[in-house]
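Re: export button greyed out
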Amino acid sequence: MKKKNKRLLAGVIGAAVVALVLAMSGGREEVSDKPVVRIGAILPLTGDMAHTGSFVRKGIEFAIDDVNKNPHNKFFYRAVFEDNRQEARQTVPLANKLVFGDRVNMLMTFFSASARAAEPVITANRIIGMHGTPVVDILDGVYNFTLFYQSSEVARGASEFANARRSKRVALALQQSGTILELVGDLRARIKGETREFAINRGERDFKMLVRNIKEWNPDIIMISAGSPEIEIFIREMRLQGVSATMLGLDSISHTGNTEVLEGFYILSSPFGDEKFLARFGHGTVMTLYAPYFYDAVKIFADATERAGAASGGVVPSGAAISAEIHKVGEFDGILGRMTISPRGAFLSKMVLYKIENGKLIRLKE
Amino acid sequence: MEYLLNLGILFSIYGVLALSLNMVVGMAGLLSLAQAAFYGIGAYATAIGMTELGLNFFVSLGLGAVINIVAAGIVGRILSRWKSDYYAVVSMGFSIIVFSVLLNWKELTRGPLGIFGIPKPSIFGYSIDTNLGFLMLCLFILGIVFGIYRWIDRSSFGRAAKAIREDEQLAQVMGYPTRRIKSILFGLSAVVAGVAGGLFASYIAFIDPTTFQVKEGIFLFTIIIIGGLASSRGAVLGALILLSLPEVLRFIGLPFSIAAQMQQIIYGSALVLMMVFKPKGFLGKYRM
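Workaround output, generated via the alternate export path:
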């Protein structure tokens, strides 16, 4: 490349970056005289899972906005977000950065891999960890909490759905993940009819063969768990190939707003958030379930910190003191309805069966 | 400080990985995308050895080395017939196979659940459970690998490898056993990548197959191209640049709402500029 062209290219890239930074750098951190409680969050803000991570970030931001509006609070709450692109490699240094650099009092992670990578850092430094995962073996009853319904509850609800319909063949079309693997064994044991697994690979776009295989096996129920956009493409292909089996989504709808494609689809899920909360997202009526879980978790954490802070004379309380206050909560009414915090530290909601009719989510039963 | 120690550990591990890749790409000009696979095999061997078999960290590393030698022996023999783009495609295929095995051999690897609770190493009863101690271990291993690389680079074997890189046919005519040299280099680089995998598994304490995908191999490729092909110092420098640049960008005060995206844009732009102004990389000795 000629020297002149190199300079030109460098100039263009440099100018574009500077312009983008200037154009987008409108936000300023709020300041407060109160002692600051910092909440760190390691989320996939770029990459394949960015859409889900950005919903979660909004959930946390909404909660912090709401908490800071309370004039009676002794502390001011501030979030520090870091992007790990859903890579375990990024998670451990980021957890250390947030704990030792930003001095966060709570660290939130998303998905099993991030939770497992961050958990030792959280436990060693005795701060609160809230993890968007159903993996319960990271729970220690003190510092670590999980924010998602448990696989056993999904297995119970889904098997009831199949057994009540006297299903003879249940196809399990599932995207491979730690969460799903936790679920599958339990699900197969509980379903009375024959089951067969069909793998939906992340990033796959052509489901012709997969759907043909499912159709040939002729199941009466197809249980699906996949992210967006795979789920929409997969279901559209099933419609095109005339698959008439009953379809049950296991949390899949949480990733998509495209209810038209999913007409007639059953969904087994935590309750969707109340209308007021959903409206704040500006994405219609559907968004990831994780956002309300994280919203509730931040509010519960802040309430617990305020209570523990009352006893500590206005000093930001220790992780153990905050944890004790969180464990005292037991049950609360959250965005997803009645929630329970188990003695081990799992935030649990009830499971609800929905159906999509005329593009709308109809709540059938708990 | 702890954060910097953690970055130092990652830098050391990726320095080892970059050196391992530079052994095949830089020295012999072989476009290998198999490094992520050997990295993964080493990580899983260490994890399974320590958590399931109760082996010591260093014995587990040895186990990973043995498995990698066997795997590299088989794959390297097939690969030694080719160079350039054929080599890249076949080695990428091997990476995909290994990823699929790690993902689907659930009885051994726990599949997507991954393996957690991987302990830190211990030497003579002394557990290296602090970040500083672990960094020292990683730097020590990086130093050893760096030394081995330099030693090979300056040896007659290294000169033969470079001859293959420049003109394989000519090297054959001159009597060099080119296929054997390529296989040995491939095996050696697999062992070194496996050691890096073992360090990574023990450091993170949790591994799952997603870390060892083909894209990780491409990231390693980027490291040695930016740092400089066929240069030991270049490989280490490349690891330092590519791992530290995104971390530096975390501190430039971008607003939260766009920070992650902007970091990616700036990072990508920096890579473009580096390649425009330094097409051989910073310390590169040859251009692909």
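The two ends of chain B are 39 Å apart (CA to CA). The button fix ships in the next patch.
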